[in-house]
Amino acid sequence: MRENGSGNEITIKLDRVSKSFGEFTAVKELSLTVRAGRVFGLLGPNGAGKTTTIRMIVNITAPDSGTVTLFGRKIDSELQNHIGYLPEERGLYRRMKVVDQLKFFAELKNVRGKEVEAKIDDWLARVKLSEWKNKRSMELSKGMQQKIQFITSVIHDPDLLILDEPFSGLDPINVELLKEIVLDLRRAGKTIIFSTHQMEVAEKICDDICLLNRSEKIFEGSLRDIKSSFGRNSVAIRCEGGDGVLDDPALVSKLVRHSDEAQALLAAGADAQTLLRRLIDAGAMIGKFEMVEPSLNDIFITKVTEAA
Amino acid sequence: MKKFLAVVKREYVQRVRAKMFIVSTVLLPLVMSLFAVVPAIIVNIKTPPMRVAVVDQTGKLYGQLKEALNSDDANQESNANQQSGRRFGRFILQEVNATGQSVEQLRADLNQRLHDRQLEGYLILPPDFLQTGQVEFFNRIPGDLFSQGILRTALNRAVREQRLIEAKVDSKTRQGLFQPVSVQSVKVGDGGAERDSGGSFVLVFGVGFVMYLAILMYGQIVLGAIIEEKETRIAEILFSSVKPFTLMMGKLVGVSLVALTQLAIWGLAFSAFALFGAGVLASQGMPASIPSIPFSHYVYFALFFLLGYFIYATIYALVGSMVTTAQEGGQLAMPIILILVISFYLFLPVSRSPDSSFSFWVSMLPFSAPVAMLVRIVTQTPPVWQIALSLLIGFSTVFVIMWIASRVYRVGMLMYGKRASIPEAWRWARQA
Q1: Among B283, B318, B341, which Cα is nearest to B412's?
Q2: How far apart are CA A286 and CA A261, in angstroms?
Q3: How many CB pairs under 8 A join A and B?
Q4: pTM above the 0.95 mark?
Q5: Which of B116, B117, B327, B380 has the most CB atoms at less than 10 Å from its CB?
Q6: Which strand ranges, in their side-by-side order, compose the sheet holding B91-96?
Q7: What is the dihedral sign for C-alpha B99, B104, B106, B109?
Q8: Whole-complex ipTM
Q9: Is the dihedral of CA A223, A224, A227, A232 positive or negative?
Q10: Cβ contacts of residue A232 below 8 Å, gap of 6+?
Q11: Is any Cβ of chain B less than 8 angstroms from the Cβ of A70?
Q12: For A193-208, what is each residue's pLDDT tens digit?
């Protein structure tokens, strides 16, 4: 339906969208733009409003106010056929054969006929589950079921794919496998919304991100932009001694210790040179001192603290 | 519409293919026929005849008694007893000559024979028996009430015959006196006199019963089917493709087609069985006929059966939309059965006065309409507009309930599987 994304075409546009359930406001005045052919990360802690936002995009629930536009049209049930959605709450019919389930989900997107069978074989081969085609889903392991669930969201070749925590509970090998598939789909011109609270995962595959916290947007833009706007104010350090220095709040606003090294986020107004000098003065033996980009996690925490 | 059909197809195919369906479809007629055949076999087990000695101090009754016990001729008055008497209560009577012996002597003698298992019991008919009607039956097996009943009936007949003889009533008059009456119910409709509304009435009862059975059996299945997507957490995936109302309607219709399939199989099996049975009866000289019922009635039977089934099935669907597990649903479904039973009993007042305004209103109320309207149709067919109105109200109710159920279902899912109280469900239905 869409041309291969040039990066400027807009797939989704939310305009001042709000949704509340009784007293509780799930999404407040949210505006965002998802460009075609890109992976858009919808990020935020649990309860930030990610799932509600997605549900409004896929037309499961309607916003109280504001508008949702997809492919330049107001969302309706026909447009649903061009969306693939893998919700966080997902499952399979336990007693149904894998192939029958996939056919059923394709039919619900108005895709039927011979080519569906070929597509199913194709996808099963891609996720390495071909020999499970005629098994009931209750016979599959949890990880296998998750891969089948993933197929249900792409079997109809959607232009927009929305994945809500797609990797939770998967082992690293399968995470890698699905990640490659997602990136392949992007290369094929699909628009992908990727919702997660795991910043490390998002960091690796998202082109653009939107940070949500407590029903509100706190940042939206390309991952590149946000990282460069933050500058390199994070330092990876491996050293012995000089303990007190890293705990000084005037220098380091946040310190994360890993097994053999630490990552320090510089406090506002402090600079790396000062920190290094102080460490040497304190008699620390320095093994590594490297300026690094802030992690998305660090950015998120900083942004949330700023907003509060 | 295509999506609706996809849901229906999945629901139907999955269920009909399931082992449970095949097993229950085959098993039920088998169990039913066992219920029919086993008692017949047991009843036909030959028991040794009961040996009874009779001391007839009246000197007149032994012959009568023997005749009464062994008579095969159709004495309609105690037909049932006579028939079973041939199976159970086969008696071998032997007269004991009482002359010259005191009652005590006789009893001692007979007790000895009882003890030696030469007899199962004995009767001593006292000389004034014809007047008093008092007699004692001494026996080894006082628990055999059935045989005693037969004996009592036979004694009754013997005594009555003897009393009539003594009143100088000749045998022809006696027979005439006991000729039973025969009552034939004739329905008088608009078209003048018609024969037989009894057959229709039995059929209404049958339709009501099958409806009741279908609701009991499939209501729970509808409930389970509605909950299925919640328990397997598929609901949200589905709702990104299909509207909740379409999904729920599809599931309801799918399960209902399964129900109809199963009922049709059973119906065919039953008809085959009945035809076979009728054949057997006919070969024994007892022709069984299918009651003559106007064709329109069959159409009404089908329509109101469907209405009754769907009204209650949708209530189960509504319950299913409110709860998160089948167990919770089972508890909430209890009142449904109560309403069902009450509406079933309404056929009594309705059949007595099918034209009353009470009958009119209960045949319009969706929950009682299926049974009440059918009773009215076979007793005193109401105007067509009333029948049509009743159907219209009923099927509209089905849609409204399903619409409410789908709203409750959707909001319940958005609320992360919270169970809805009834006021909450109502609020959800309005706001969603």
Answers
A1: B318
A2: 11
A3: 69
A4: no
A5: B380
A6: B91-96, B50-56, B121-125, B136-139
A7: negative
A8: 0.81
A9: positive
A10: A291, A292, A293, A294
A11: no
A12: 999 888 888 888 899 9
